[in-house]
Design brief:
The structure holds two protein chains of two kinds.
Chain A lengths: L3 E8 L5 E8 L4 E5 L6 H9 L6 E6 L2 E2 L10 E4 L11 H11 L4 H14 L15 H13 L5 E5 L7 H17 L3 E6 L2 H7 L2 E6 L2 E6 L1 H6 L4 H7 L2 E8 L2 E4 L4 E3 L6 E7 L5 E3 L9 E13 L2 E8 L3 E6 H7 L6 E6 L5 E4 L1
Parallel strand pairs in A: 3-8, 3-9, 6-7, 7-8
Antiparallel strand pairs in A: 1-2, 1-4, 4-5, 9-10, 11-12, 11-14, 12-13, 14-20, 15-19, 16-17, 16-19, 17-18
Chain B lengths: L5 H5 L11 H24 L5 H5 L2 H34 L5 H13 L2 H12 L6 H8 L7 H26 L3 H8 L4 H12 L1 H17 L2 H6 L10 H10 L3 H25 L5
Helix pairs in contact in B: 2-14, 4-8, 4-11, 4-13, 5-8, 6-8, 8-11, 9-10, 11-14, 13-14
Classes of the chains: A alpha+beta, B mainly alpha.
Chain lengths: ~350, ~280
């Protein structure tokens, strides 16, 4: 299947300049991660052919497609708010691509039915987008993009429009579909968690430039800029999952709300960690004893790193840090809800 | 297109605040009376007792049929040429676009008689185009049914163009981008995505266009004349009836014209909720 090598230069009248080199191997999922205004979506639109390059090239399988209009690039796009055609049913939306490629109506509809089935929405074939939930619309949009048999799949903030509950579910679901897709996928996101869960490799963009690239684990281990450092604050572990419990390579166990097994990554944000001076009462399933390793103020919050099995970083308010009287070497207890721990196949 | 929801109604101000000040309410009521009284006059003065015979006069029926046919034909003409013009104005950039937009809307404010004279200078026997038609094909357009359709299309097309252009500008262009990434050519995108999305705007424009064509008088009588059976549409017939001291016929036929227009508006409103 197809690989991508792109050198993208886009200059805006406002003085914004995007300079990005990007590659993705067949089957690889690459996340473009960065703050708002970093140029991620611009890069995606350039790949799709919706804006013109000022300089550079876009090689898909070694052929430069940067001169082609979007309709001839065979690049599937899942847009941020999906852009399902409101006057067509879910089935007609998915059949639109095959129809445009010249398939007879019956053939296109059969293909669309298969794709709807693969995203688990056969029952919604006759439903108009206005009546679909956010999660369903996202899956129809994915089916619509995949039904064109694209050489490359682009996803613009695919989870941003969803509420927190559906998000976790759709995230796992999306990862499954991206793994099944044979071509390269590029996911644009500003959410480090999405990037970590979905991507094999992360490219961090700030101010129109790549500031760092690597596997999620590498990015977390050696952050190079403040933005990445803030992301790197995520607690990320490698381990093996069985029956909802992840045995961490670095030591210890974590219960997770995700239904996975085998080699996994487990991840949660430092804000999800509660810190106590004695063993807490109550229900959190992940409670373990630690010792303060380092303390680092961050605006109105304090980041505390702890030694333990596993080691963990927590984010607490300045007031809470003072009250807990945390110093390097202080013993403490930490707790994380299982539902906050996301586990995904490594 | 959706009915206001209960939540939306809940946000409306208290009934006490919804009353207009007298300085606005009084002229508003006078204005409405001014608009309604002439229609009421038609109803009051109509020759109800012999309305059947007036309306079934062969000349009246002929005029009505001609009006319906020519208005529909000119509306079709406006759709075929007006939608592409609206697309060009809304979606492309070209030199002199502002001037073109101004010119396109000129027939809206032009006195229809002037429109008729202008049509003569273009398509008349000695007109800039018409003289070649005459010389090469022996064809002259003025004073034919075709001239009626051309006159109606000339005055009615701006209504369609403006409505469709507005709808195109308001439509979310990102749907077209989505269609392109799905491999649709620009024509397919226009046909299957753009046009359905601006459907309500097209319908509204078509209704306005058709109504304007139905009522066309000045350009028609100038460019096509007033010949029974070929160019005498309803408005012209009504005018002739008044002129020949048959006001009862004129009133009855005017009522009929009102009824036809109202019927069309109501029928379209019922089908497309977004109109009007």
């Amino acid at each position: 299947m197809s690989d991508l090598r792109a050198d993208i230069t886009i200059v805006r009248g406002s003085g914004f300049r995007l300079d990005l080199s990007l590659y993705a191997m067949p089957g690889e999922v690459v996340a473009l991660l960065g703050p708002n205004g970093a140029g991620k979506s611009t890069a995606l639109r350039a790949l799709a052919g919706l804006i013109r390059l000022n300089a550079g090239r876009i090689l898909v399988d070694g052929t430069d497609i940067s001169g082609l209009p979007p309709e001839r690039r065979r690049i599937g796009v899942v847009f941020q708010d999906y852009l399902l055609f409101p006057h067509m049913t879910a089935l007609e939306n998915v059949a639109f691509g095959p129809r445009s490629a010249g398939e007879p109506k019956a053939v296109a509809r059969q293909a669309a039915e298969r794709w709807l089935d693969r995203v688990g929405l056969s029952a919604y074939a006759r439903v108009k987008p206005g009546e679909l939930s956010g999660g369903q619309a996202q899956r129809v949009a994915l089916a619509r993009a995949l039904a064109t048999k694209p050489r490359l799949l682009l996803l613009d903030e695919p989870l941003a429009a969803l509420d927190a509950r559906t998000r976790a579910e759709i995230r796992a679901d999306l990862r499954h579909h991206l793994t099944a897709f044979e071509g390269a996928s590029i996911v644009v996101t500003h959410d480090p968690l999405d990037a970590m869960v979905l991507a094999d490799r992360i490219v961090v963009i700030e101010d129109g430039r790549q500031v760092q690239a690597g596997t999620p684990a590498e990015i977390v281990r050696r952050p190079r800029t403040d933005y990445v450092a803030r992301l790197a604050g995520l607690n990320l572990y490698r381990g093996v999952a069985e029956h909802g419990v992840v045995t961490i390579e670095a030591g210890g166990h974590l219960a997770t709300g995700d239904d996975v097994s085998g080699p996994v990554f487990a991840v949660f944000p430092p804000a999800a960690v509660s810190v106590y001076t004695s063993r807490p009462e109550g229900s959190p399933r992940n409670v373990w004893q630690v010792e303060v390793d380092g303390i680092e103020p961050h605006a109105d919050r304090v980041r505390v790193s702890f030694r333990g099995d596993p080691p963990v970083a927590a984010e607490v308010t300045t007031a809470a840090a003072a009250e807990l009287d945390l110093h390097p070497g202080t013993p403490a207890w930490v707790a994380v809800k299982a539902t906050e721990v996301h586990a995904y196949p490594a | 297109m959706t009915r206001p929801s209960a939540a939306r109604r809940g946000r409306e101000p208290d009934p006490g605040f919804r009353r207009a000040p007298a300085a606005l309410a009084v002229p508003a009521i006078l204005g409405l009376l001014f608009l309604l009284l002439p229609l009421l006059g038609l109803l009051v003065r109509a020759p109800w007792r012999r309305i059947g015979t007036v309306l079934t006069q062969p000349a009246a029926l002929t005029a009505l049929r001609l009006s319906l046919e020519t208005a529909t034909a000119s509306t079709a003409l406006c759709l075929v040429f007006g939608i592409p013009v609206a697309y060009l104005l809304a979606r492309t950039r070209f030199w002199g676009q502002r001037a073109v937009r101004a010119l396109v809307t000129l027939p809206l404010v032009l006195p229809p008689v002037v429109g008729g004279v202008a049509l003569f200078t273009a398509y008349g026997r000695t007109g800039v185009v018409g003289k070649w038609w005459d010389r090469w094909f022996g064809y002259t357009m003025p004073f034919t049914t075709t001239a009626v359709v051309v006159a109606q299309a000339f005055v009615a097309m701006p209504f369609l163009i403006i409505a469709v252009e507005g709808a195109l500008r308001a439509a979310d262009r990102r749907f077209e981008e989505a269609a392109a990434t799905l491999g649709a050519s620009r024509w397919t995108t226009f046909r299957r995505v753009t046009l359905p999305l601006v459907g309500p705007g097209v319908v509204a424009g078509t209704v306005l266009c058709w109504a304007r064509a139905m009522g066309e008088f000045g350009a028609t009588i100038t460019f096509a004349g007033n010949f029974e059976g070929t160019t005498q549409t309803m408005p012209l017939y009504v005018y002739r009836a008044l002129e020949t001291a048959d006001p009862n016929s004129a009133i009855a036929l005017s009522l009929l014209l009102v009824a036809v227009c109202v019927a069309v508006l109501v029928a379209l409103r019922g089908r497309w909720a977004g109109v009007g």
